[in-house]
Amino acid sequence: MLVMSHIGYTLGITSQVQKVIPNKPINQLTVAVMSLLPDIVDRMLFVFVLPFAESGRLFAHTILFGVIICIALTTISRHWWIYGLAPILHVILDTPMESPLSWMKRASWPIFGADLQILGVDFKAKSLDIPDQITTRITDLTNAYFEASWWYLSLELGGILILIFFFLTRSRSCSQEKP
Ligand SMILES: [Zn+2]
Description:
Blueprint: H1 3-20, H2 28-49, H3 63-76, H4 81-93, H5 100-107, H6 130-146, H7 150-177
Helix pairs in contact: 1-2, 1-4, 1-7, 2-4, 2-6, 3-4
The structure holds zinc ion.
Zinc ion binds at residues 38-39, 57, 61, 90, 94.
């Protein structure tokens, strides 16, 4: 999924979860950043660190990563579990971006084997030198955004509409609270 859809759907879902399981008020900016955390981590690894990675979806695009982040945040403060939900939702929301089988294998890594090739890391692959790697991969990632299909763009539009609805209802409830 694209940036606005991740933020929009995650903010929408976490605010609904919070209604069912009462928690301290959530910080929307933190939810937005956490909803993009798997892309931030894996894109950085893909561009700058792992020359053998084949795509920008790596370890942070697994349920295991989301669970580790969720446990770590809950250990720091028990109210932060809701922020730990965001990276897990990211992995689930990325489902339409690839075939169900490859999504399931990667998301559930290492349940069906700890082979790093499941995550698209192939140490036998020919690597580029670092400057070429960085420029080629940044170009690939940018092109992927601009070459998104109508299906992805409609998902993005859905995320933007949720964000507009979310902030309109929030500003209305804030103005009602004022004396
Ligand atoms: Zn992603």
